[in-house]
Amino acid sequence: MASLPPALKKDDDIDDDSEYSPFYGIEKSAVLQEARCFNDRELDARRCAQVITKLLYLINQGETFTKNEATDVFFATTKLFQSKDIGLRRMVYLMIKEISPSSDEVIIVTSSLMKDMNSKTDLYRANAIRVLCRITDGGLLGQIERYLKQAVVDKNPVVSSAALVSGIHLLQSNPEIVKRWSNEVQEAVQSKAPLVQFHGLALLHQIRQNDRLALSKLVSGLSRGTVRSPLAQCLLIRYTCQVISELGPNSQTGDRPFFDFLESCLRHKADMVIFEAARAITEMSGVTSRELTPAITVLQLFLSSSKPVLRFAAVRTLNKVAQTQPLAVANCNIDMESLISDQNRSIATLAITTLLKTGNESGVDRLMKQITNFMSDIADEYKIVVVEAIRSLCLKFPQKYRSLMNFLSNILREEGGFEYKKAIVDSILILIREIPDAKESGLSHLCEFIEDCEFTYLSTQILHLLGNEGPKTSDPSKYIRYVYNRVILENATVRASAVSALAKFGAVVEGLRPRILILLRRCLYDNDDEVRDRATLYLSLLSDEPDAAQDDAKAFLFQDLDVPLENLEKSLELYEPSERPFDLAAVPKDTKPRHQTEKKAPTSKEKKAAKDASKKSAEGGASNTFEAYEKLLNSIPMFAGFGKLFKSSAPVALTEEETEYAVNVVKHVYPGHVVLQFNCTNTIAEHLLENVNVAMDLIEGEDFNQVATNPLASMPCGVTGQAFVAFEKPEGACSLGKFSSTLRFYVKEVDPSTGDADEDGYEDEYQLEDLEITAADYILKAGVSNFRNAWESLDSESERVDEYSLGTRESLQDAVQAVTTILGMQVCEATDVVPSNARSHTCLLAGRFLGDTQVLVRLSVGIDSQKQVAMKLAVRSEDPSVSDIIHEIINS
Amino acid sequence: MDVSISLVKNVILLDSEGKRVAVKYFSDDWPGLSAKLAFEKSIFTKTHRTGARSEAEIGLLDGYIVVYKFISDLHFYVTGGEDENEIIVATVLQGFFDAVSLLLRNNVDKKNILENFDLVLLCLDEIVDGGIILETDANVIASRVAMRGANDDVPLSEQTISQALATAKEHFARSLLK
C-alpha cells in the first residue's frame, strides 16, 4: 500500500502545482516490475535512468529490499553497462553502491568497472574507482592496485581525489596494500589542486600515524611550505597539535615547537583555518596567558560576526576556556553580553554560561537581571544548562546566595518540565547543604514550591529534607503547616512521606510533640494502607513517655539503613514466613549479591524498621556516613563513655586489593580517645574466620595506651565485619603515632558446596600495612561562608605566621595540594585551584580543631624559575595554642 | 584532541513538515530506520521555528553539531561530530546548498527537487564519500554532477546562454515525458 505523499496533506496556502510529485503513489512492487526494462534488448536509457531514480528514492525513504529482490535488481543493473548514455551510467554507479552486492556477485561488475577505470572520460574513471573500492574485497584489490597507484598521481584532481579517498577507506581493511602507495601519496600532497592536497595529507597521516618521527617531519616540512587548501591547513593544524603534545615544551627556553606556525595560522584568510588554530591553541595543555591572548583576540572578533556559525564556534570555544581560565576570557565580556539577545538561543545560552563563569562578584546582580528576561523564552534544555551554571556560581560566591537563591526560587515558580524542575530543586538542595546561611531561606522556598508541585518525586524528596533539616532551624513550627497541607491535599506517596516528616519534627522538637500527635492521629483514617501504617507506627513511637524511648524513636527515625537495598530485597525474598522473624542484622552489608541463611533472633520492630528505612532511603537523600558511624560506635557499650565523637576519617586500605582478606581502617577521634574500626572482608570461600582480632604495636609516638578491643566473632566469606581497637590519649591533645597491626584469627575449613564448617581449626595471622594517626585526623573540614569576615573576627593576637621552603615542586598546584592534604582542612572560595603558570597564589583554608576550636589558615605560595616553592603560612584560631599546633604539623 | 580527518555524519534534506526528502547517512550512530527518523524529527522540531534563511544557523543538537539553512519549503541540514570544526561543517552545507541551487537554476523548492531527484542524489555523492569531504566548491560539484568539466573545464556557472537553455529544455521535456 502506498502511503499518501505529503503533498496531499498540504495546507490551503500552498498553490495547486505543488501537489504534483513525480513519486506520487510510488510502490515498491510496481517499480521492481518496471526494472525489467533493464533486460530489454533495445535499452531506453532515459526510462532506465528514471526507474533507477525511483528505486533510489524508495531506498532513500527507508524502504528495504529482500535478498532476492536485491540480487535481481543488481543483475538487471549490470546489464545497463551496455548503454553508452552518460546520465544512465552515473545512476548505475549510484545504484551499485546502494545495493552493495555480496562478494560472489561483485565479480560480475568487476570487468565493466575496470574498463571504466581505463576510460578516456575522467569522471568515469573517478567514479569507477570509488565504486570498485567500495564493493571490492582484498583479493581483487591486488589486481587493480597498479591502476589505483597511477590514479593517485593522475593529473585530473577528480581522479586523484577518488583514489586517495578510496585509499583512506581501504586502509582499514587492507593496510599493507595502501601503505605501498606512500611515494605516490607524498607526491599528491604537493599537488596544486586544493582538495587533492587535503585528501593526500589525510591519507599520508593515517599511513604514518604510528611513526612519531615521520609525523614530526611531515609537519615541519608542510608548516614551512605552502598549503593551498584551507581544509588541508586545518588538518595540518590538528597534526601539529598532536606533535606538540607528544614533544612537550622545549626544556631550555620554555618555548613550544611549532607554536609560531599555529600563531601564523591566526592570520590566515580562511575563517575555518583561523578558528581551527585558535581552538587548537586554547586546547594546548598548560597554555600560558601570553600564548592564549592572540587566539582569544581572533575569537573575540568572531563574536561580532554576522554569521551565526562563526559566533557559535567562537562562543563555544571561549566557554570551554572559561572553565579553566576565566580571567583570559574576561576581556570578551562586553561582546558576550550583547550575545545574550542573540536570535540563536544556543549562542545566547553559551554566552550566559560563559559570563557566569567569568563574572566577578560585583557583577552578579546585574547579570542575574539580564538572565531573568532571557529565561522566559528559551527551551528547557537550555534552562537546565543555565541553572547548573548558576549553582556553580553560587558555590563560588557564597555571599551572593541571597540573589541567586531568589533567582532559583523565582524560576521554580515558572512553567517547566520535570527535568528542569529537578535541576532547580537539586541545585537548591546542594546550596542548602554547602552554604549553612542559605539553609532557612532555601527551605522556605522549597516549602512554597511543594504547595503547588505536580511532581511526586520532587515533593517526596523535599519532604524528606524538611523532616531532617526543619527541626534544627530556629523556628521549626512554621514548617508544620506546609507539611501537613500535603497530608490533606496530595496523593498517597506524598502523604506517606509527609507523615514521616511530621514524625521527625515530633521526635526532635519536644514542644511540638503534642500537636504533632494530634496531626498524626488524624492520619489514622487515611484511605491508603501505607499512610495509615506509618501514622500508627510513629504514634506508638512518639507516645512512649520515658526519655529513653524518645531517644529510640529519634534514632529510629533518623537512622540510615546501613545495608544495600538489593541485598535486603534478596534476603526478604528468601525469607519464609515462620516462627522465626526476619533479621535485618543478617542481611549482608557488602554489595556483592549473596545468599545467606538467617541465624540470629531479632525483634519484630527491626523488621518494621527495615521496611520503613528502606522506603526512606528510597525517598532520596545521601546517606550520612558520619551519623552512621556515630550510631554504630554508640551501640558498643565499651566506647559509650568516650564522649562525643569528633571526627571519623575516610576508610584507609591496609591490604592490597584482591588479597585473601581485605581490610580497611576508619579512624574515629574522641576528645580523649581514638577508636580504630577495622572493616574486614574474607574473600576465601573455603575459610570461616572466627574470633578475629587486631593486634597493634606502637612504632612511633608515646601518647597512646590501648584500652579496649572488640573482636569480630565470626567472619564468613563475602561478609564485611568490624573489629575495634580503642586507645586512650591525653585529653584534647593532638597526639601523633604510627602503628603496625596484625590480623589474628582462628581459621575453620568450610566445604563450599554445603556451607558447613569443620569442627576443628587452627590459629593464623595476617600482616597488615602500617597505619598512622596524623594531624589531619584531629581537624574537621568546616567551611566558612565569608572567609574575610571570619578571619577579621578572630583575635589577631592568635595569629601565628611563619615561612617555609617546600623545596622543588612540579607546580604550585602540586604544593597547594600537598599542604591541604596534610592539614585536611576545607578549602574556601575555591582557592585550591591555582591558575596555570601563576607565579604566586593564596589559598584559604578553614576547619575545626579537636575541641571544636575554629581555625583559619591563609596559605601563600610562590614559585621561582628553578621551581623552588616558598610558603608563608598565617594561622588564626580561637585558641592561640591551636595555631601553634598547625605550625608544628607543617614543621614535622 | 581528535586528529582524524573531518567527518560528516549525515546530510539531510527535509520538507516544511519535517518529512524526509533526501538523506544520506555516513555514520553508524543511528542504526536502523527508526533511529534515523527520530533524529530527523528531533532536529526538525528544534530548528524549524528559527529563521535560517539568509545565513546558515547552527546548534549543538543531541550532542552533534548541526548546521542548517532553509529555502522555500526545504530544510537543509549537515551534521558533524561534537568536536568538529563548526566552520568546516558549515562549508559542506554551503557547498551542497549552492550546488543544488546552481543545478536547479535557483528554483529550489520541494517540487523541483523531486523532479530532479537524480541530480540531488548525484550531488550528495559528489560532496561526501563515506563521511570524507570530497569537494565543497559548488561550481565544481555542479559541473561534475552534470558530467561537464570531465573533459573540458567549463564550470556550470560559466556556460553560455544557449547551453543553459538547452539544459532547461531538456529538463522541461523530461518532466513532460513522465
From TrEMBL, chain B:
**Pfam families (UniProt xref):** Clat_adaptor_s
What are the record's GO terms for cellular component? Answer: COPI vesicle coat; Golgi membrane
Task: Please name the GO terms of the biological process aspect recorded for this protein, alphabetically.
Answer: protein transport; retrograde vesicle-mediated transport, Golgi to endoplasmic reticulum
State the UniProt keywords alphabetically. Cytoplasm, Cytoplasmic vesicle, ER-Golgi transport, Golgi apparatus, Membrane, Protein transport, Transport
Q: How does it sit in the membrane?
A: Peripheral membrane protein
Which ranges carry the AP complex mu/sigma subunit domain?
A: 8-149
Transport found in the keyword field: yes
Task: Fetch the SUPFAM superfamilies from UniProt.
Answer: SNARE-like
Localization recorded for this chain is: Cytoplasm; Golgi apparatus membrane; Cytoplasmic vesicle, COPI-coated vesicle membrane
Q: Which domain of life does the protein's organism represent?
A: Eukaryota
Subunit-level organization: Oligomeric complex that consists of at least the alpha, beta, beta', gamma, delta, epsilon and zeta subunits.
Q: Which family does it belong to?
A: Belongs to the adaptor complexes small subunit family.
Role, per record: The coatomer is a cytosolic protein complex that binds to dilysine motifs and reversibly associates with Golgi non-clathrin-coated vesicles, which further mediate biosynthetic protein transport from the ER, via the Golgi up to the trans Golgi network. Coatomer complex is required for budding from Golgi membranes, and is essential for the retrograde Golgi-to-ER transport of dilysine-tagged proteins. The zeta subunit may be involved in regulating the coat assembly and, hence, the rate of biosynthetic protein transport due to its association-dissociation properties with the coatomer complex.
Protein name (Swiss-Prot/TrEMBL): Coatomer subunit zeta
